[in-house]
Hints:
mainly beta
Amino acid sequence: xxxxxxxxxxxxxxxxxxxxxxxxxxxxxxxxxxxxxxxxxxxxxxxxxxxxxxxxxxxxxxxxxxxxxxxxxxxxxxxxxxxxxxxxxxxxxxxxxxxxxxxxxxxxxxxxxxxxxxxxxxxxxxxxxxxxxxxxxxxxxxxxxxxxxxxxxxxxxxxxxxxxxxxxxxxxxxxxxxxxx
Length: 181
């Protein structure tokens, strides 16, 4: 078996289990070392949440933030996260991890005004007035603003090189807004 190519091995298919092993090459662009990882270890590492910094500006990347839950802290200033150019299937999830309503705004924007959001967020009005869907215009809105949010879960899914589908909910006194850059 030592002389078999990986492509010549039998596939486990649907019999794959969390304890099964995968071959990985650690540090391929530096000093490559062959290592092993279980499927469970790999899934857990790739799904670990990302704690966003309490800073005014964050640039999200596919390598660090995509496919993971990104947790906004209770911020000390308005914080803007800039997304990378979307591609089909590129996903991001944002949640608020603070202990009380934030006193500052959380803003998620695309990398340019030719990249926009399609979809809606459900606004759960915390002062009891209304609950409603808030839609992007689907053709130019590239900035999503959450005004002093209390809680939210926002999912963004890349549909193409110019579109992120948006869905989720925001609990807040103020409704979230979509705008052009």
